[in-house]
Design brief:
Elements lengths: L10 H41 L4 E6 L4 E4 L1 H7 L14 H15 L4 E7 L7 E12 L2 E11 L1 H55 L7 H28 L2 H5 L2 H12 L6 E7 L7 H22 L3 E9 L2 E8 L14 H12 L3 E6 L5 E8 L12
Parallel strand pairs: 6-7
Antiparallel strand pairs: 1-2, 1-5, 3-4, 4-5, 7-8, 8-10, 9-10
Helix pairs in contact: 4-5, 7-8, 8-9
C-alpha cells in the first residue's frame, strides 16, 4: 500500500484526543503540585515544631553535620556544625562516651544516658540525653538527639542526699548515745545491784540459827526488790540498744523484741519473716528495728487491739515491713503533731530512700507499710560502736 492509498487522518478526532491528554496531564500536574504543596506545608510545620520544641533537639546526617536544630538547642550551643564542635563542650571521657553512644544509635539502638556539658553560658549543666537513629525505608540516614536539662533536679537530689547523710549521722550519734547510756546503766546500776544481791544471798546463808523468821523475810523482801531493779534496768537497757542487734543482726533482735512484747497477756503478736539476706548495713538494721519497735509500741499503747501482725519480706532488692492491728484505728490526717511515733517511722524510711504508707480509719484498725531498698553489710563492716 502506498502513501496515496492510506486513509486521511480524522483531524478533529486527533485534536480532541490530544486535548484530552493535555487536560489529563494538567489535572495530574495540578494534583502533583497540590500534593507537593501539602508536603512542603507539612515539612514547614514539622520544622517549625522542631525548631520551637521546648528542649535541646538536634539532627545530624551520617557525616555528623547538623541539619536541624531547635531554638532551645541554638540558645544553648549556638548553631551546631560538625562533630568537632562537640569537643569544645565536653571532656575527653564524655566525648568518647558520646561518640560510642552515637555508634550504638547508628546500629539501630535508642541510647539513653546522662552527661555534664558546658553550654554557651560557660556554666556546666547536667543533661539527660536520648540519641536515636533516623531510619528511612529500613536504611539509617542519620541521628536525632534530645538533651534535657536536669541540672535543677540533680542539684535538688544532691542537696536531699546531703541532708539525708546529715540526718543519718545525727541518728548514728543518737543511737551511739543510747548505747552509751545502756553501758552506763549496766556499769553503774546493774553490776552494783548484782553484787549487792550476791552479798545479800551470802549474808542470808550465813545467818545464825537464832535469827528470827521476821529478819529472814525482811532480807527476802530486799532481795526481791533488788532482783526487780536488776530486771527493770536490763529491760531499759534492751529498749535503749538491744545487744542482739549488734551481735547477731536484725532478725534475732526482732524475734527478741516480739517475744518481750508478747509477754503482755493482753496482746498476741504474730510475727513472720521471709528474707534471703544475712546481715544488713548497720544503719539500715537500726532503722528497721526502730520502725518495728515504734509501730508495736503504738499498737500496744493506743490500738486496743488484742492482735498485731508483723511481716518482714524481701522482694528482690527491696524490703517490705508490714505492721497491722485490728483496733480502734484513727484518722491519719488528724494525728497530733506532738506525737512523734508515726513521724519517726516516716522520717527513718525517707532517710534510706524508702516510703511509708499508713492506712487507718476509726473503728477499722491500722496498717503501716514501709518499703526500703536493701543494703547488705559490706565485707569488713564492723558493728555500730
Amino acid at each position: 500500500m502506498t502513501d496515496r492509498d492510506r486513509p486521511e487522518p480524522d483531524l478533529p478526532e486527533e485534536v480532541r484526543r490530544l486535548r484530552g491528554r493535555v487536560a489529563a496531564l494538567e489535572a495530574a500536574q495540578a494534583v502533583h503540585e497540590k500534593m507537593a504543596g501539602q508536603v512542603r506545608d507539612r515539612e514547614a510545620l514539622l520544622r517549625s515544631m522542631i525548631e520551637n520544641f521546648p528542649f535541646d533537639f538536634w539532627a545530624r546526617d551520617l557525616e555528623g553535620r547538623c541539619f536541624l536544630q531547635s531554638a532551645e538547642s541554638i540558645r544553648y550551643w549556638g548553631h551546631l556544625g560538625g562533630v568537632d564542635f562537640d569537643a569544645q563542650r565536653v571532656d575527653d571521657e564524655t566525648l568518647a562516651r558520646w561518640k560510642a553512644n552515637n555508634q550504638r544509635a547508628l546500629q539501630g539502638e535508642v541510647v539513653r544516658g546522662e552527661a555534664t556539658l558546658i553550654p554557651q553560658s560557660g556554666e556546666p549543666r547536667h543533661y539527660y540525653q536520648i540519641v536515636a537513629p533516623i531510619v528511612d525505608g529500613g536504611v539509617t540516614k542519620g541521628l536525632l538527639g534530645i538533651n534535657i536539662d536536669v541540672t535543677d533536679r540533680k542539684q535538688a537530689e544532691e542537696a536531699l542526699e546531703q541532708e539525708r547523710q546529715s540526718l543519718r549521722q545525727l541518728l548514728d550519734v543518737y543511737e551511739n548515745h543510747r548505747q552509751l547510756i545502756a553501758y552506763e546503766i549496766h556499769d553503774a546500776v546493774v553490776q552494783p545491784l548484782t553484787a549487792s544481791l550476791m552479798n545479800l544471798e551470802a549474808t542470808v546463808r550465813g545467818l545464825p540459827p537464832p535469827c528470827t523468821e521476821e529478819a529472814r523475810e525482811g532480807f527476802a523482801r530486799v532481795m526481791a526488790l533488788v532482783r526487780e531493779g536488776i530486771a527493770e534496768a536490763r529491760r531499759v537497757m534492751g529498749g535503749l540498744r538491744p545487744p542482739l542487734l549488734d551481735e547477731a543482726g536484725l532478725l534475732p533482735a526482732l524475734e527478741y523484741l516480739v517475744a518481750e512484747i508478747a509477754k503482755d497477756p493482753s496482746l498476741e503478736v504474730d510475727y513472720a519473716s521471709d528474707v534471703q539476706f544475712d546481715r544488713l548495713a548497720s544503719p539500715l538494721e537500726t532503722a528497721l528495728y526502730r520502725i518495728v519497735q515504734e509501730a508495736l509500741t503504738n499498737a500496744r499503747r493506743h490500738s486496743q487491739s488484742r492482735r498485731v501482725r508483723v511481716r518482714l519480706l524481701q522482694q528482690g532488692r527491696r524490703l517490705r515491713v508490714e505492721i497491722q492491728d485490728w483496733g480502734v484505728g484513727f484518722d491519719p490526717e488528724k494525728v497530733d503533731h506532738s506525737r512523734f511515733g508515726l513521724k519517726g517511722i516516716r522520717h527513718r524510711a525517707e532517710l534510706f530512700g524508702g516510703s511509708t504508707t499508713i492506712e487507718s480509719r476509726p473503728g477499722q484498725g491500722t496498717r503501716i507499710l514501709v518499703e526500703l531498698p536493701l543494703v547488705e553489710r559490706a565485707a569488713g563492716e564492723t558493728q555500730q560502736q
